[in-house]
Amino acid sequence: MDLLPGDKAPIFNLATDGGGEASLSRLKGRPFVLYFYPKDDTSGCTKEALEFTKLSKKFETLGIPVIGVSKDSVASHDRFKTKHKIKLTLASDPETKTAQSFGVWVEKSMYGRRYMGMERATFLVDAAGKIRQVWRKVKVPGHAEAVLAAAKLL
Q1: d(Cα 58, Cα 88) in Å, to the nearest integer?
Q2: Which of 12, 48, 62, 65 has a Cα-to-Cα distance from 30 of 20 to 30 A?
Q3: Angle formed by the axes of helices 43-54 and 74-84, to 10°?
Q4: pLDDT given for residue 1 in this prediction
Q5: Residue boundaries of the structural domains of the chain
Q6: β-sheet with 32-36: strand ranges across
Q7: Can 6 be counted among the known catalytic residues?
Q8: Residues 30-68 pLDDT 10s
């Protein structure tokens, strides 16, 4: 079942880079962006993280944290952030429970082979914990700017 604007954001509690934690309860009363991406240090995922990093000060000014989520380990996130100077929180979802609850752990196909993987998707959640906007099957160029524009309307 796809989550839609107006739906409550699913509960999540994830370990993050730097030994932190990201959870719905910790973000209560604050809007936030949760973006799901397939894998650390791949070209599209790196570009997406760098696009959000470029706008990180603008999101901070709005009081809106941006959290990237993938199946990668916290150690992988730490290396990825250091290597590319990423200024976002990266959360680890190794068992894909959060990805499944957000409906982004999906069947994919490449070269005729079917497999389960993370859909590139972004959720803008308001201070009340309701999803305000959803972007699925994200194309990276211009995406972070679109999310920022929507966040300014909260």
Answers
A1: 12
A2: 48
A3: 70
A4: 62
A5: 13-152
A6: 21-23, 13-16, 89-92, 66-70, 32-36, 121-125, 131-135
A7: no
A8: 999 999 999 999 999 999 999 999 999 999 999 999 999
Residue of 45, 88, 138, 144 marked active site: 45
- Cα–Cα distance, 137 to 101 (Å, whole number): 17
Beta pairing, strands 21-23 & 105-110? unpaired
Domain 13-152 superfamily per CATH: Glutaredoxin (3.40.30.10)
- Residue 14: pLDDT above 80? yes
In total, the chain counts a number of residues equal to: 154
**What ranges make up the beta strands (E) of 18-138?**
21-23, 32-36, 66-70, 89-92, 105-110, 113-118, 121-125, 131-135
Q: What is the mean pLDDT of the chain?
A: 96
d(CA 144, CA 154): 16
Residue 16: DSSP 8-state: E
How far apart, in whole angstroms, are the C-alpha atoms of residue 94 and residue 71? Answer: 4
Backbone angles phi and psi of 7, in degrees to 5: -75, 150
Cα–Cα distance between 23 and 7 in angstroms, integer?
Answer: 17
- pLDDT tens for 80-105 read 999 999 999 999 999 999 999 999 99
